[in-house]
Every structure is written in C-alpha cells, then in structure tokens.
Specification:
Blueprint (H helix, E strand, L loop, with lengths): L20 H18 L14 E2 L9 E3 L1 H9 L3 H12 L5 E7 L3 E6 L1 H14 L13 E5 L11 H19 L3 E8 L4 H17 L15 H13 L8 H26 L6 E4 L8 H11 L3 E5 L15 E5 L10 E2 L10 H13 L4 E7 L6 H11 L5 E7 L2 E5 L2 E2 L12 H8 L1 H8 L8 E4 H5 L6 H21 L6 H5 L9 H11 L1 H11 L3 H23 L10 H25 L9
Parallel strand pairs: 5-6, 5-11, 6-7, 11-12, 13-15
Antiparallel strand pairs: 1-2, 2-4, 3-4, 8-9, 9-10, 13-14
The structure holds one RNA strand.
RNA sequence: GACCCCGUAGCUCAGCAGGAUAGAGCAUCAGAUUCCUAAUCUGAGGGUCGCGCGUUCAAGUCGCGCCGGGGUCGCCA
C-alpha cells in the first residue's frame, strides 16, 4: 500500500507526538496567509492568533472550517467574503484539500480527500496508545495536589471523586506533554490530629478493658478500635494513667501513621498512586513557615493590622484585634488574611503559604490544587499566595470538586452516623470496582454535583456509559479473536499494511474522522484541565462504532469479517484503530479496557 | 451583606480559545435481529440556553445588573 501518511507525514515525534489535523491545517492556512502577505494581497503585521480550524458542528459544512477570513478581514481592511474567496482558492491547491468553499459570513469550509482519513487509521496503528500524545506541556513541570484528606479517618466518597479527578487530570497532563508530580498534603500539623490522638487514646484504654469516654468532639468511629489495639501492642500499658503531655505525641504519631496507611491502601484500590506525600507537620518548628513569611515580608506583603468585621453578618463575639496579615488584596483577594492567631499560633493559612512556597521552590511551572467545593472561599487567597511568592511567574489553578450524591435504586443511601462514618471510598470500590467508580465519577464536570446510583452504574445497558464504552472495546476484541481464528494476521503492524484505501464507505470514513479528533481533544481537555471531556469523547466514539457495526446488518459490505481477506484486513484495521484510541482514552481515565463482557 | 459554583428539552447532563440551523442519554411514540455479541441500532416529537442591557462581523460561551438553587465567610482545619 502506497498510501501517504496524511497526518503522520511528519511522523510521530520523538515522544510519539501526533500533530492534530486541526493544527496541521492551521499551519497550512497560516502559510497561505504569509504567502498572500508576501505577494502584496494582504498587509503585513496581521495577528493570526484568533484564527481557528475546527470541525464544524454541522457535518454538512464539510470536514473542517476556518474563521481566518472573518478575523483578518477588518485589520486587513477587506471584505470578509472577498478575502475568504481568495484564501479558498489558495487552499484548494493543497493536496489534502478536495474542496474549499466560502459559506455564511465568511467561513471557509474544507472538504478533505478520503486518503487523509484513511491515513489516520494507519497513523493510529503505527502510534498505538501513544497516538494523540501532545507536546503541549513541552516538558514543563506541573504539580497536581489532590485528595489531601485529613488523616483522621477513612476516606469517603467525596474524597473518591477528588482522587479520581486529580489522578485523571495528572494522567491527562502527562499525555499532553507535561512532567507531572502527584502530591498529597497530609494535614498532620493541626488540632484535628490531636483530637484523633485523644480519640485513639480512649480506644487504647478500651483495649485494656477500661470503658472509653468518647467525649463530645472526639471521633467516635469504630475504625479507631484497631488503632487502640495497635497502641497496646506497641506501648503495652506504659501510657495508661499518664498525663496527656506524655502520651499525646506518640499516640498521635501511631494513629496518623495508621490512618495514612489505610488511605494509601484505599487510594491503591482506586488505582491512584501519589508521587509525594507532603507532611504539614514538617513545616512546623523547622523554620519553613517563618521563611515563607519572611519572603512575604520582604515583598512588603506582611503587616500588623486590624481587619474590619465581616459586613452584614457580624459574629457575636467579634472584637477588633491586631494581627499579622498577608496583604492578599494586592493579588486579587477581597480582604487581607491573618496568618497568626490571637494566641500566637499560626492560622491554618500560614502552613499553606509555606507549603505553596515549597512547591514553588521545587521549581514547578504550574500548580494545580484539587479541593472540595466547600473550600471555595480559599481559592482567592491561595492564588494570591502563589502570585505573590512567584512574583507572577507561576499560575495556580484550583479545581473545585463538587459533592457526590449516593443513591441505590433512586433512594438516597443512608449514612451511618452512629458508627461515625460516611459511606467510605472502600465500600464503593468494593461494591462496584475501581473501573466503574472511576469512569462514572468522570462523566460529570468537576464543578457540578454528581449522582452516583449503585444500581445504575452496574447496569449492563446503553444507559450506562461505562458499559457502553467497554462494550465497544469488547466487541472489537471479539472481532480480532475471530479474525485470528480464521487465520488472519491481526497484529497492529500487519493491519497497518492493509489496503486502507478500501475504507471508502461514508460510514467508515465517519469513524475515521472521529478518530482524527482525538489528538485535538487531548489538547483541549488538557488545556482546560477537564478530564471529563475524554469520557464524553469516548462515549461519542463508541456510539459511532456501534452505529457502524449495526449498519452491517443491512449492508454486508460493512461487515468486518466478510468480503475476502484483503477487504477484511482493511476493516479490521479500522476497528482495531478504534480500540486503540478507546484504550488510550480509558488509560487517561485510569480504566481498564474490557476484552469481553460478562 | 460579600465572595465562589450552578441555572441549556419533561428528567440527567454535554457544548471544545465566541462561530453557521444549540446536542446526547433517559422518558414517550414508531421501527430494525435466519447475518461478526439486538448488552446494539434507526427514526419522530420535545428549547424565550433563568431575565435584561452591553462588547463583537458573530454570544449558551465574554462584561455589567437582576432572579432562583447550593457553598463559604477573623482566632476550625
């Protein structure tokens, strides 16, 4: 087969980069513009930044559309349609372009030759799961901080969503060329781990046969019984009847370590692995908070002052107080923020400043914090910290993750308050499995609430996007098994050698066009920090495939295994390409592709 | 009172650096199976994109102001 590698004419880059068709055509268009400038048909100095090339919403408008003439017409002092006509004539000379037509207010609609789409199939088979990797990140370093659940108990479903989102975002950014560090901030330095220690101490007493006194404010959860037993195993009776000052630190250390072990294990079951666990405690008594604040002071952003009371609803016990304040208002915050409590201790915000300072010192080019939506009020001040300490060089993107509403058969799942626990992450993963849990949690944008129905997510029907996408992949796997049984060579290398020009049916080309969207989708999703886009794309791709499959019922030409070995090889190559992209997409979501449905 | 998020078909939600006649699933109705998995597919009906101004050649998308829902609001993390 002498099919030109349409998209891959430049070949996959050293890191497997495959330029998206859109950006390749955009380059062609910019080239034409330059040529027109050189030829005096356009004035120099035009800014092409706003020129886009994208598949039109309406397929009837062609394969690709560009707004180039419309955005350049005014600065060039030309009529949009006239400019579009001239550009269309120039573009029609490109070998990939079958037709360039002007439409509407000045769009140029491009129709591409079939071999471009057929070439995509070959490119996918050559690139494998790396096809669609982007150089967008250009090797820059991004830190994605997520989960960061307090080590005071088991993780619940809300944490699961943050974990899945953060992990998928990390995978997406890596696929888009970023060097990614996944990080978990352990809140082990504040009062809440002291509460954990006191709660665990009661369980320790209980393990010695004494009756525990779970006072108001302590954690009542049964999960601390095991911690009590572990404390006995480790310290025997040596901590009994001793003052808190003696046992607090060792009990706290044991309890938090055990909680973190559990958290790590739960994350592991979800398929989430962290690169760094950063201890808040490590910031105290080490001069690191002081260093970060000193930096702020050097920048003139720290001062002693008195805040105005919150307007509207003034707390009863509010009284003016001089505090150490961070002038966050200079970096977009509404009010300046205190870093020291009236008792002289640090506010929660102080270690956060030090923590983000530490991230900056580690040289990241971009920071992402994934937080629960209830932390929305902290976004401004965190951004202010990063803007101030990096002096505007590093951006912080805060992704807020909304809550998960658990239901079963449409009825809300009751939380077990008596045991002091919510529905845990582990319970969810044990019941539905990591793949289902992950996929479902990525079928919504991060900032909208998610309904998670235990019955629905396990349903094997098209109502369930997890199943629907998996089924498409499994159908293709089944196809390849059958082809292999029939003696066909079904390795990607063998399939890439098929005569792809035989894929000339509109239904086949439509599938290939959908595949061609993948590299661009990766970039769009990565740029927006929105992994859910991948899930929606996979659904669309699966839908296209299922539709194509069913067309084979009426049109036998479309059946993958019929029509002779040569034609079958081309069609199986197409199917395999679909499977490759599905599995690449699922890999970003952290979901294992299914080889068969059961 | 201030700030953040949300408001798109009866329901649940997409809508990609603003782009052409706003999409999908569910639900409703009508169809497709001697044939690679019908666990699927095809078609129909269904919309003042919460409301109003503004910016733009072009606004669901950007800005401002309202309305409705949720969240947060100095010494808790």
């Amino acid at each position: 087969m002498t099919l030109a590698r349409g998209l891959g004419s430049a070949g996959p880059g050293p890191r497997g980069d495959a330029m998206s068709l859109s950006s390749e055509l955009r380059a062609v268009i910019l080239g034409r513009i330059e040529a027109m400038v050189a030829g005096g048909d356009l004035p120099a100095g035009l800014d092409p930044a706003a020129v886009t090339v994208e598949p039109p919403r309406d397929a009837g408008h062609g394969d690709m559309a560009t707004n180039a003439a419309m955005v350049l017409a005014r600065p060039a002092g030309l009529a949009p349609r006239a400019l579009a006509e001239a550009m269309a004539r120039a573009l029609a000379a490109d070998p990939r372009i079958a037709a360039a037509e002007v439409a509407g207010p000045g769009f140029i609609n491009l129709r591409l030759r079939p071999w471009v789409w057929q070439g995509v199939v070959g490119d996918v088979l050559a690139g494998g799961r790396d096809w669609g990797r982007s150089g967008l990140g250009a090797g820059r370093r991004v830190n994605v901080e997520f989960v960061s659940a307090n080590p005071t108990g088991p993780m619940h479903v809300g944490h699961a969503r943050g974990a899945v989102f953060g992990d998928a975002l990390a995978r997406l950014l890596a696929f888009a060329g970023w060097e990614v560090t996944r990080e978990y901030y352990i809140n082990d330095g504040g009062a809440q781990v002291d509460v954990l220690a006191r709660s665990a101490y009661e369980r320790y007493r209980e393990a010695h046969g004494l009756s525990p006194e779970i006072a108001e404010g302590l954690y009542p959860g049964d999960y601390l019984i095991a911690v009590g037993e572990a404390l006995v195993a480790r310290f025997g009776a040596s901590l009994l009847d001793r003052p808190e000052a003696e046992w607090l630190a060792p009990v706290r250390a044991t309890a938090t370590a055990m909680m973190m072990d559990q958290i790590r294990e739960d994350l592991g079951r979800l398929g989430v692995r962290m690169d760094v666990f950063f201890s808040e405690k490590s910031l105290y008594g080490t001069g690191r908070i002081e260093a970060a604040l000193a930096r702020l002071r050097d920048l003139g952003l720290l001062y002693e002052g008195v805040l105005d009371p919150p307007r509207g609803k003034t707390p009863e016990d509010w009284e003016p107080r001089e505090q150490t304040l961070f002038r966050s208002t200079l970096h977009g915050d509404d009010v300046d923020r205190p870093v020291r409590k009236s008792d002289g201790g640090w506010t929660y915000f102080a270690p956060d400043i030090a923590y983000h300072f530490d991230k900056l010192e580690r040289g990241f080019d971009l920071l992402v914090d994934v937080l629960g939506a209830d932390h929305g009020g902290y976004v401004r001040r965190l951004k202010a910290v990063v803007a101030a300490l990096s002096e505007g060089r590093v951006a912080l993107d805060v992704k807020l993750v909304q809550l998960v509403r658990l239901t079963r058969g449409g009825q809300p799942v009751k939380m077990s308050k008596r045991a002091g626990t919510f529905v845990t992450l582990r319970e969810v993963v044990d019941e539905v499995g990591p793949d289902v849990a992950r996929f479902v949690m990525l079928t919504r944008k991060n900032d909208v609430a998610l309904d998670f129905d235990f019955d629905r997510v396990l349903e094997q029907s098209k109502d369930n996007p997890v199943f629907y996408v998996q089924y498409a992949h499994a159908r293709i796997a089944s196809l390849l098994r059958k082809a292999a049984e029939a003696g066909m060579a079904v390795t990607d290398a063998a399939l890439a050698g098929a005569d792809l020009a035989l894929l000339d049916h509109e239904s086949e080309l439509a599938l290939a066009r959908r595949l061609a969207e993948w590299p661009r989708l990766v970039e769009v999703a990565a740029r927006a920090h929105e992994p859910h886009r991948v899930a929606f794309y996979l659904y669309d791709l699966a839908s296209e495939f299922h539709a194509h499959w069913t067309r084979g019922n009426e049109d036998t030409r479309l059946r993958f295994l019929e029509g002779g070995a040569i034609a079958a090889a081309a069609r199986i190559a197409l199917a395999r390409a679909v499977a490759v992209v599905i599995s690449a997409g699922l890999a970003i979501l952290g979901v294992t592709p299914a080889e068969e449905m059961r």
